[in-house]
Automatic annotation (TrEMBL):
Species per Swiss-Prot/TrEMBL record: Ectothiorhodospira magna
Keyword ATP-binding: yes
Binding site for ATP: 10-15, 127, 136-137, 199
Gene that encodes it: adk
Residues reported in the UniProt entry to bind Zn(2+): 130, 133, 150, 153
Protein's name in the database: Adenylate kinase
Domain notes: Consists of three domains, a large central CORE domain and two small peripheral domains, NMPbind and LID, which undergo movements during catalysis. The LID domain closes over the site of phosphoryl transfer upon ATP binding. Assembling and dissambling the active center during each catalytic cycle provides an effective means to prevent ATP hydrolysis. Some bacteria have evolved a zinc-coordinating structure that stabilizes the LID domain.
One GO CC term on file: cytoplasm
Region of interest: LID: 126-163
Binding-site list for AMP: 31, 36, 57-59, 85-88, 92, 160, 171
Length: 217
């Protein structure tokens, strides 16, 4: 199952990816996670990417495509994968199509998680991630039992550097201008499926799982 997950920042792509990954045993490939790891490790690639990320702008296509090519060459992608946060613009989508054509393994589905603007702002400003196990919480919509302590492993919760109001506004603008056109792109290729992304995580996942089950047939 080769899946592109589409949706604005804060739409729940990361959360739903993790659930799909468990169910279908395919890796989640998040370009945002790969870039944050490169920044944290201080690699040359991370140093190049950091300024754009801090400003809520897109990192250059060259950097991201290089990472994706490398990642899709790894053996754990043989049975499929979930692309989370990639592609982010039409040039990346075209490059992905070319790459997959070369590999003879086209996408199965582009799944859009559709969430209204107000909910996105609330989710992004409240988002907290566990520094130890990566579990995601939200101060407003999914609070932990004890403030700043992970419910899963007791680790410390952190706030992503780019989850502040100015950067969030930029990220949502970038989404509208550069990423939203992908909805039409995949629709024209008959790959687009949409689920509503408001409400309980489990309810949304049920809708996601139904779409994926119907895609497999
Ligand atoms: P995310 O975790 O997907 O919200 O990504 C965080 C940040 O990483 C974005 O705001 C961009 O600066 C950068 N980024 C992630 N994925 C991409 C991509 N496919 N193309 C360009 N920049 C990206």
């Amino acid at each position: 199952m080769r899946i592109v997950l589409l949706g604005a920042p804060g739409s729940g792509k990361g959360t739903q990816s993790k659930l799909i990954m468990e169910r279908y045993q395919v890796p989640q490939i998040s370009t945002g996670d790969l870039l944050r790891a490169a920044v944290a490790a201080g690699t040359p690639l991370g140093q190049q990417a950091k300024a754009a990320m801090d400003a809520g702008q897109l990192v250059t296509d060259d950097i991201v495509l290089g990472m994706i090519r490398e990642r899709l060459a790894m053996p754990d992608t043989q049975q499929g994968y979930i692309l989370d946060g990639f592609p982010r613009n039409l040039a990346q989508a075209g490059a992905l199509d070319d790459l997959l054509k070369d590999l003879g393994k086209p996408l199965d589905v582009a799944l859009l998680i559709d969430v209204d603007f107000e909910s996105l702002m609330q989710r992004l400003t409240g988002r907290q991630t566990c520094a130890s196990c990566g579990a995601v919480f939200n101060r407003y919509t999914h609070p932990t039992r004890e403030e700043n302590v992970c419910d899963v492993c007791g680790g410390e919760l952190t706030h992503r550097a780019d989850d502040n109001e100015d950067t969030i506004r930029n990220r949502l603008k970038v989404y509208e201008e550069q990423t939203r056109p992908l909805v039409q792109y995949y629709n024209e290729r008959s790959l687009l499926k949409t689920v509503k992304g408001e409400g309980e995580i489990e309810t949304i996942y049920k809708a996601v799982a139904d779409v994926l089950a119907s895609t497999r047939q």
